[in-house]
Amino acid sequence: MNQQEDxxxxxxxxxxxxxxxxxxxxxxxxxxxxxxxxYAAARYTEFxxxxxxxxxxxxxxxxxxxxxxxxxxxxxxxxxxxxVYMSAVAQELEGENLDRGIxxxxxxxxxxxxxxxxxxxxxxxxxxYRLYRATASEHSVLDPxxxxxxxxxxIL
Length: 156
What we know:
The protein has three helices and eight strands; from the N terminus they run H-E-E-E-E-H-E-E-H-E-E. It has helices spanning 3-17, 56-63, 95-111, and strands at residues 20-26, 32-38, 40-42, 46-51, 66-72, 83-92, 130-142, 151-154. The two termini are 14 Å apart.
């Protein structure tokens, strides 16, 4: 395995092993906001979550769809942490994308002890929640051999 494959394996392992991502958004004026959200990943490039359309991060996405994401294990000892950093574009899902997305989200939620199966009608108006998807265009991880930033792009 070469270094790119090793770092890609690290990134996939982090995404597979964790339940929450930190979603970074900004409002129309550029004021930043971060939120932890439970996610389901598809092909390591699509990240799905359910939120109220009134939540700050949801309103920010409606105004400015460019987001950042970090997935990491916050329980590891100091100095041993590793994360996956991503740039993405987010949107509320509708139509056929909603039907496929809610299947992916519901399946992963059930695997992690979610209390119910999610259906498309649970995230369509007038329901209280919506399904969102962030599509990542860039991934990077910390590379202990890199300098000075240590973040190295990976292809997943």
